[in-house]
């Protein structure tokens, strides 16, 4: 951190500004800070500005001072951002950008629970751009020795995820537009979502952040920012979900389902329900058979069997949060199996899963009747597919050119 980079004499000269008097009026503004260090190098200016924010966190101030502190802290942070542009290549390692963002995220997290401060912070122009910038810098977070600060990075990742979930970034909101601009493009923002979904299921998180809670925050953000509720509106940007799907969101969600099914945390089943809802939205919002076939090929049926076992939990909220989306998704899959490629993919998946699924698999389960209907319909459709593949089955399709009197076998098309 910057406090480790500053010399003892620099700290001795600076810290009395803080600890001599805790009166907020004595805390320097960014302009006063610049005057104090006008003869110093740009590196020293940035170091002292970061130390200013870092020192606030050490004072353990009460939440109600956040509204008074925020204008100063935001000024310091803008001061840091502006002056970083004047650093030389040799100076940049002395003031790592990740350090400044780590300190900034720690500050805003400390005042996250105070409504007045939160409202002031979240409505500041470019605030959400800074959140996305911090998000994109997380893989680069190193300590002073150049080693990966894993615990610190995972904690910052958890803080970012909490702010994303609280952002209320709808598809046509200025917040999402600000985030997209900071990321570079909507596809760059989508890549961040997918990258950190993978992080949640492959890397350790702090004790305060279970993988389920972290994934839930990411899913809340992805759905809120990506699903257009008003289909009649003219969108200035493509919904985030479309960009996520182009980058194989369905594959990542399937991986999340398998990961969560092996977890024992109490809140896991709620996140499973959110995954099923999002996967159902993806399947239903795409053109027929676009995603269902690939999902079945990658193990969707096996995943739904595992999720159903988790849906048997005795919890009052299990019905609306997990069983209901699972029930409707089973119905949707049956409707999608009328298309050739999905039913072919289902046939293979069904054969592979026959050892773990039958009409009595979920006997006495809350979704027993739904699985019986699903399996009955599936058997009927598989029978149609078998007839279709039979050598004796013949069907014809008229040519689009009505002048042609030729009716080829449809399987040759």
Give me some keywords for this one.
413 residues, mainly alpha, 21 helices, 63% helix, elongated, disordered N terminus
What does this protein structure show overall?
By secondary structure, this protein is mostly helical. 63% of the residues lie in helices and 0% in strands. It is built from 21 helices and no strands. The protein has helices at 2-5, 8-14, 16-19, 30-36, 42-59, 66-84, 97-110, 115-122, 127-137, 150-166, 174-183, 186-202, 211-226, 240-246, 249-261, 268-285, 292-297, 300-310, 318-336, 340-353, 368-389. It is elongated and about 90 Å long.
Helix and strand topology:
Elements (H helix, E strand, L loop, with lengths): L1 H4 L2 H7 L1 H4 L10 H7 L5 H18 L6 H19 L12 H14 L4 H8 L4 H11 L12 H17 L7 H10 L2 H17 L8 H16 L13 H7 L2 H13 L6 H18 L6 H6 L2 H11 L7 H19 L3 H14 L14 H22 L24
Helix pairs in contact: 5-6, 5-7, 7-9, 7-10, 9-10, 9-11, 10-13, 11-12, 12-13, 12-14, 12-15, 13-16, 15-16, 15-18, 16-19, 19-21
């Amino acid at each position: 951190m910057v406090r480790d980079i500053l010399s003892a004499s620099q700290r001795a000269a600076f810290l009395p500004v803080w600890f001599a008097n805790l009166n907020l009026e004595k805390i320097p503004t960014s302009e006063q800070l610049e005057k104090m260090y006008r003869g110093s190098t740009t590196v020293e200016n940035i170091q002292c500005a970061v130390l200013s924010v870092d020192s606030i966190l050490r004072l353990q101030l009460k939440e109600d001072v956040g509204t008074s502190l925020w204008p100063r802290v935001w000024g310091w942070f803008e001061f840091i951002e502006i002056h970083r542009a004047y650093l030389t290549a040799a100076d940049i390692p002395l003031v790592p950008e990740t350090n400044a963002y780590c300190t900034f995220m720690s500050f805003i997290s400390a005042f996250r629970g105070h409504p007045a401060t939160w409202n002031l912070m979240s409505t500041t122009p470019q605030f959400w751009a800074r959140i996305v910038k911090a998000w994109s810098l997380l893989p680069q977070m190193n300590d002073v020795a150049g080693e990966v600060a894993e615990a610190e990075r995972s904690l910052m990742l958890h803080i970012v995820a909490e702010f994303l979930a609280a952002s209320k970034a709808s598809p046509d909101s200025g917040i999402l537009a600000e985030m997209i601009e900071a990321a570079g493009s909507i596809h760059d923002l989508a890549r961040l979502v997918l990258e950190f979904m993978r992080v949640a299921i492959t890397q350790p998180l702090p004790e305060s952040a279970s993988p389920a809670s972290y994934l839930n925050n990411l899913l809340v953000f992805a759905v809120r920012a990506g699903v257009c509720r008003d289909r009649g509106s003219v969108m200035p940007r493509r919904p985030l979900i479309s960009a996520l799907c182009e980058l194989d969101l369905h594959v990542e969600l399937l991986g999340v389902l398998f990961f969560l099914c092996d977890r024992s945390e109490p809140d896991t089943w709620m996140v499973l329900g959110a995954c099923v809802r999002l996967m159902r939205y993806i399947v239903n919002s795409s053109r027929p058979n676009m995603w269902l076939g690939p999902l079945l090929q990658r193990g969707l049926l096996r995943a739904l069997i595992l999720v159903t076992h988790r849906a048997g939990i005795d919890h009052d909220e299990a019905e609306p949060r997990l069983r209901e989306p699972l029930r409707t998704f089973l119905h949707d899959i049956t409707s999608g199996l009328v298309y050739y490629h999905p039913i072919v993919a289902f046939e293979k998946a069904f054969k592979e899963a026959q050892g773990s699924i039958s009409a009595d698999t979920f006997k006495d389960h809350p979704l027993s009747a739904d699985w019986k209907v699903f399996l009955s319909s599936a058997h009927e459709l598989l029978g149609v597919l078998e007839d279709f593949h039979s050598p004796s089955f013949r069907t014809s399709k008229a040519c689009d050119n009505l002048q042609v009197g030729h009716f080829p076998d449809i399987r040759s098309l």
